[in-house]
Design a protein that fits this description.
4 copies of one chain form a homotetramer.
Chain A (H helix, E strand, L loop, with lengths): L4 E2 L4 E6 L5 E7 L9 H10 L18 E2 L3 E2 L2 E2 L4 E6 L7 H5 L9 H7 L17 H16 L4 E9 L2 E2 L6 H7 L10 H16 L6 E8 L13 H10 L4 E6 L10 H4 L3 E4 L2 E4 L7 E2 L2 E2 L4 E7 L9 E5 L4 E5 L10 H22 L9
Antiparallel strand pairs in A: 1-2, 2-3, 3-7, 4-7, 5-6, 8-9, 8-10, 10-16, 11-16, 12-13, 14-15, 17-18
Helix pairs in contact in A: 1-4, 4-9, 7-9
């Protein structure tokens, strides 16, 4: 059974492997008439570029986006939009060792079982973080769609390892700071601490995880198709498709479990003739439907499983216990690169639901 | 756009409202030849019955399951299985007040917007926790399917309000104790504390939330269809469809964010000729595919939004700020009733993926 | 794998068997705010009632429609609409014989293989023409939806056995005459001939087939989502789900194969400021998208496989050649009863696409 | 709403336009472990190449297939397979005229309405017959899958214009002759007549249609998921997605309408210990499920709408009646090129259902 398409009105189909020829996305359902250029997509793609920082993998990924279909004379045509980036600079040799020696924390073993050993294991193949480039390309289109209804999607790092963002940051700080430091944190001071946390792990041949918060502003009330296509369940599903995500929460999230109803409920007020909530512990979603308040969602990322420390594993051929020591380039923390991916995922889900609701219509003019 | 069906090989379609005629489920894709009786379904349904306890709503729900189709002479036929419970003992009067005065924390306001005021608001209508009875009926069939491949699904309360389960409990304790106390906790002592926490909230006219942990044992390695139909993303989507769930995590979950890779990675070992992980911080899923280890998932429930304390809200007709005080029967904590629902959700997702993988085949003999 | 749901924005899920407890439909995606009553549905259901005519089966089907969900105070709520009819007057005894002796032309053998002998074979079970009652209930809702955009769906018998409608009939003749004769033909004279054709077959213990033409008027240009959800492919798929349909054609259909391009192409003209086609060999669909002209589709029905003549078959238990002679009530021609079913199928597909196009919106006011 | 994906277990997503950069297909759900090479796909692609014949368009289409993903070291990996052909030799100038002057019989007008004039109209854009190259690429993979269960798919031209195949041809004649003449007819003599029919139309600046018959051999009994994913309804849907198809029939098809039940029913017999039908008016499908007999389906193609004769149309800008005379290269009959496309469509549907049934499993070894 397949599993490489997602969405109902806006359907994303992905293909490609880490060390194959391309990483690609087909986005189907985008209305005709949306102005879009290669540069629009490239700008989003560049956000996930590791750059020269010591805290990210040394793999040089130029990631030049090509649009293969669905755009004509600068506008979407209503036909499916296929976008690809080509894979370059790939050194597959280190992966021969892991073919039968699954790396702990990676999908090597599960993919081996699921695909009977036929999976392309080079660079993690289909399970590489690199596949999220496809989400980002599609998300760039989704963001342009959302701009037509004034919806803005933000994301920022709120935790790396033991370092947490300790204060509320404004949307403006997020807009201004996130892509101006290597860890994608809205508070420049905390960003420095986060960077140290990563570098310390790197020195130890280890890695760290973290938490990314995504925010969608100006989402109209009424999006979501309960009971099963509720906005939160669709968004959670999409976020769990980012490799390394182990938890997703909305609004007060896990903290809601220890709150009283009288604390957690968000009272309504009429402000300027509109219904608003006084606070937003609901994270902008009630009953699976948007409330009109900002949508707030957090995804927790486990530490990168690729570490250079010696690890215990097995040899699937000889069925013996062995040790492995991984060489090659690995991000000691993938959280910074996940920030634009979280943005993309949120944008895709809200765009899908905006189409379903008819808030974005099938022809844009 | 619709949103009341879920699953790919095993498709659950739900219908019905809290104070309408019935709550119903159509389960499509169940193989022919599965022995099933009304009593099998009823047994699961009875697990979510509030009973005579002071800590649950006083609504008397007999919830007699009827099978309308898809079963003949004690076996599934391969045709869709429709199951219903009829609604009785419904007092819709208290809900007239809330038609235009949305209760904070409930879906009243969002449903009003989404359905233009045409939604059946009585008892929360389609957004009532009562709709999860449909999940439980369908989940009962899924559990029977899973038994044919020896998969067992458990769930237990690990937190209510500020009271947490403070030690590891064995699967046997879960099997033995969970449905023998009112809060569905595997540790009888903690269960008493949890009960006190609920009663205290009740006395204050308030409510509490909590956390339910679900476990699936003996799930074969290799289930899940990445990248978008990964086992965790499907399970998260299903769990977020339970009203009041605000967070979902697998294995180490949010804690993974502050762990090092060397801590979080689960090393593999050969034990009795089989590949197993030494520990299970992954929660039984890597790369969206089951590892063969127990699947561990936790869902956080916010406190019941229905409280008797006075709350601030608005009148959607007059567009004025008002207060409401809710009367009627409400669970001060819905967590205990959610335990069998979590079991059902997990069972449905694993059964779907087992069918997709061909591990459960289309005719059972 | 499941197969009992169809549609994308308007999803129909069906359940029930010929001799089970009910025949049911869940229609999901119908906008909130559509006025609907039990009587609306019943009126469509009554169109497929065999009545007292000698040309139809003697099974007395009162078929009282019950709405179980999704309608409140006379309006759709936006929640899934479950409708059922209960099965009465069922004599299952004659079917014991056929359990292992598949009737030629029926699904007995294929269902036996597909469901491993667990299928409910009584009265054809899930393969009975009776399941189309579910299409009619759902189609009744679809028709009401279409009325809000002025779309009208008609159907009429154009052939029974060797008797064909030999002239063009007007839409008014169809509206006026079809449900005023037993064969659902718009030309009363031809209707008499058709009736004789059926009676002759009946006397011989045999059966006849026929052709039903469906028409949709005032369908706006631009419906259809090529390349795979084209309007014709979706309509064909739906029509082939009516038992006994063996062929479907649009506009000139099979005749187009022997036409020249210059004959078959429909020239455009401006009439009253609107683009219209001079003729309609396309049947209202080009490139899978509606042209704004009437949609014309024809479905060919094979003769009822149930005949009282002796037939050759096999015994699946003893694996020997045997003969069977069927007793019991059978329609010598199911075409008349299929006419409202064709209407329902067309209405469902156009309503689905109207929702997808945003021409019918998610809240009707 | 999208519409460029089809299938449930084997999902085909298509993209690309006639004069865009590529025509592409993503096939998702193909099991891991299927040996596949670029040449396998190319061989099928070459079947639809017009070649040097006077009866086909002069567009030189080399159509070199490239596999972008999903295949590693000669085997499918279980990941989605993306295949493309690049577009070359395209002269888009003649299409500027038709931008606002829709060609009768083409999708120009309906696409203009559907996509608000943003569609890529060059060469018919997304509505060109050229998009069927994507079906053929995907169908080549499906055929290889089917070979593992011994299923063979054939197709042949049975009618062009007024010339029909007048006798039954054997499967061997089809295998031997079809791709050895320009019209893809199994009878070489009739092939000559068909060719004359095409040439006559060509001389007149006109075009002709025809009928293609598809056959699937050795399809196991029991494929199909009624009531809505019946094998015939899925196959009809797929075939109607080939541009120019206006009718589809199975087995006796339209002729069944004038047959008696005693003629049309296929009696069963035990032959060599297996259940077979004495004849096959059902076309290998009963109740939407395969009978084990050959599947026989016919698709009628309308004449190519592109003709050089002067035609009446309208100018969508000025809203005036105008005439057009088309220049450029057009096939006077697309039926020969449709033959491998029909094969591909049939193969895709049967492969999808074979996966659903577990007859082809998710890992091939």
């Amino acid at each position: 059974m397949n599993g490489n398409s997602i969405g109902k009105a806006l359907v994303l189909t992905c293909f490609g492997e880490s060390h194959g020829r391309v990483i690609g996305a087909v986005l189907d359902g985008c209305p005709a008439g949306l102005p879009i250029s290669r540069e629009d997509i490239q700008a989003e793609m560049d956000k996930r570029r590791p750059g020269a920082s010591p805290i990210t993998s040394r793999r040089v990924e130029e990631d030049v986006v090509e649009i293969l279909s669905g755009v004509y004379r600068g506008y979407t045509t209503g036909a499916p939009i296929c976008m690809i980036i080509k894979n370059r600079d790939v050194d597959s040799k280190p992966y021969e060792e892991i073919k039968y020696k699954p790396r702990p924390g990676h999908a090597d073993y599960t993919a081996y079982i699921r695909y009977g050993g036929f999976n392309d294991y080079r660079g993690g193949g289909r399970f590489s973080g690199r596949i999220t480039a496809a989400y980002v390309m599609a998300g760039a289109v989704a963001k342009k769609m959302l701009r037509t209804i004034n919806v803005e999607v933000l994301a920022h790092t709120v935790q790396i390892g033991r370092v947490k963002l300790r204060r509320e940051v404004s949307y403006d700080e997020i807009r201004r700071n996130v892509y101006n430091n290597e860890v994608r944190c809205a508070d420049p001071e905390v960003a420095e601490e986060m960077k140290s946390e990563v570098l310390e792990a790197l020195r130890e041949g280890d890695s760290v995880g973290g938490v990314v918060e995504g925010i969608a502003l100006n989402v109209p009330a009424g999006l979501g198709d309960p009971i099963f296509d509720s906005l939160d369940s669709d968004m959670a599903k999409m976020l769990f498709n980012i490799p390394a995500v182990k938890a997703v929460e909305f609004g007060a999230g896990f903290n809601a479990a220890s709150m009283k109803g009288s604390e957690n409920n968000d009272p309504y007020r009429i402000i300027n003739g509109k219904v608003v909530a006084e606070k937003n512990d609901a994270g902008g979603i009630l009953g699976g439907i948007s409330t009109g308040m900002p949508i707030i969602v957090r995804a927790a990322f486990k530490p990168t499983p690729s570490i250079s420390k010696r690890q215990r594993t097995v040899d699937l051929n000889s069925m013996e216990n062995v040790n492995i020591e991984l060489k090659g380039r690995h991000d000691p923390c993938i959280v910074p690169r996940a920030v634009p991916v979280v943005e993309a995922c949120i944008a895709l889900v809200i765009a899908d639901h905006s189409l379903r609701a008819g808030i974005i219509s099938r022809i844009l003019k």
